[in-house]
C-alpha cells in the first residue's frame, strides 16, 4: 500500500513537471531538470558533469528529488555556495520533489542545508546564458549496425538517443515511445549513457519493474557509463535504476526481443 501511495502521489506531481537532459525526440520534454539529490562522498564531480550537459533557459525548472527528511534543497548566493554559508539562503525547500523556477540569466547556486552535506559536495551550480541555444524538437535515432558471426546484421541501440538514461517527466511512457520506434533482436546491444554516481542501470524481473523495487531482485546492476547489455535471448527485458525515487519519475525501460 505504501508503494502504491508513493507512486500515485509522484505520478500526480510528474504531470506538472517537465524535464531536460539533451536534445532528442519530442516525447522527451526539455524544460525541467530533474536531479537525484544525494550526499555521497565525491558527489561534487558528478554534479559538475551533470550541470555541464544541460541546456538551461529562463523559465526552466530545477527539480531536486531525495528521500523525505534526509536532505533539503536551497538556492543560495555564490558566497553561500563556495563556503557552504547557511546565512546566504535565497529560498529553501525541505520536501521532495523540491522545485525552483529559473527566473533570470546568469549563475544560480543550490546546496543542501543539512549539517555537513554541502561540505562533502552536495551542491550544484548552473549557468543560464543570455541567449540560450535553440532546442531541437527531434533528432534521428542513434543506432548503428554490424554483423554477427553468422553474417546477420545486429544493431546497437543508444537508449534514449541523445537524452540518455535519466528520469523523465513523462514517466516510463517516454521510454516506451522510444522503444516503439525500434525492433530489438537477439544479438543486438543496448547502451545506457548516464552520469556516473547519479544513475545506474538494473536488469530486473517484471514485478520489480512494476513496483520500482530492486532491493533484492535485480538480476544485474551496471554502475559505470556507458553500460552495455547484449540481448542474448528472445523475450521481455525490464530495466530500471536502483534509486526508487528516480524509477518513480520514469527511469524505466521495457522491451521485447525477437528471435532472428
Describe the structure.
The protein has 260 residues and is α+β, with helices and mostly antiparallel strands. It is built from six helices and 16 strands. The protein has helices at 2-15, 44-52, 78-83, 172-180, 206-211, 244-248, and strands spanning 32-36, 61-65, 73-76, 89-93, 98-101, 106-111, 123-128, 143-147, 153-158, 184-185, 189-192, 201-204, 220-222, 227-230, 235-240, 252-258. The strands form four sheets. A five-stranded mixed beta sheet has the order 10-16-15-12-13. β8 and β9 form a beta hairpin. The protein is elongated. Mean pLDDT is 82; it is low at 2-26 and 132-141.
Q: What is the compact description of this entry?
A:
The chain is α+β, with helices and mostly antiparallel strands. Helices cover 19% and strands 29% of the residues.
Amino acid at each position: 500500500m505504501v508503494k502504491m501511495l508513493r507512486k500515485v502521489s509522484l505520478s500526480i506531481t510528474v504531470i506538472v513537471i517537465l524535464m531536460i537532459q539533451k536534445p532528442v525526440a519530442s516525447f522527451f520534454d526539455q524544460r525541467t531538470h530533474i536531479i537525484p539529490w544525494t550526499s555521497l562522498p565525491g558527489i561534487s564531480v558528478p554534479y559538475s558533469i551533470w550541470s555541464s550537459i544541460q541546456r538551461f533557459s529562463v523559465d526552466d525548472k530545477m527539480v531536486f528529488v531525495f528521500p523525505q527528511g534526509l536532505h533539503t534543497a536551497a538556492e543560495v548566493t555564490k558566497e553561500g555556495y563556495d563556503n557552504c554559508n547557511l546565512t546566504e539562503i535565497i529560498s529553501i525547500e525541505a520536501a521532495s520533489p523540491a522545485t525552483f523556477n529559473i527566473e533570470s540569466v546568469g549563475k544560480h547556486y543550490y546546496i543542501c542545508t543539512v549539517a555537513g552535506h554541502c561540505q562533502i559536495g552536495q551542491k550544484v551550480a548552473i549557468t543560464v546564458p543570455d541567449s540560450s541555444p535553440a532546442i531541437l524538437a527531434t533528432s534521428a535515432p542513434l543506432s548503428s549496425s554490424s554483423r554477427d558471426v553468422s553474417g546477420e546484421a545486429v544493431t546497437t541501440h543508444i537508449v534514449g538517443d541523445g537524452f540518455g538514461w535519466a528520469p523523465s517527466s513523462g514517466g516510463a511512457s517516454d521510454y516506451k515511445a522510444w522503444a516503439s520506434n525500434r525492433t530489438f533482436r537477439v544479438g543486438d546491444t543496448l547502451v545506457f549513457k548516464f552520469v556516473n554516481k547519479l544513475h545506474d542501470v538494473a536488469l530486473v524481473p517484471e514485478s520489480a519493474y512494476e513496483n520500482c523495487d530492486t532491493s533484492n531482485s535485480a538480476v544485474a546492476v551496471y554502475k559505470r557509463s556507458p553500460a552495455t547489455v547484449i540481448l542474448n535471448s528472445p523475450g521481455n527485458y525490464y530495466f530500471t535504476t536502483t534509486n526508487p525515487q528516480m524509477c518513480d519519475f520514469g527511469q524505466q525501460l521495457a522491451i521485447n526481443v525477437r528471435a532472428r
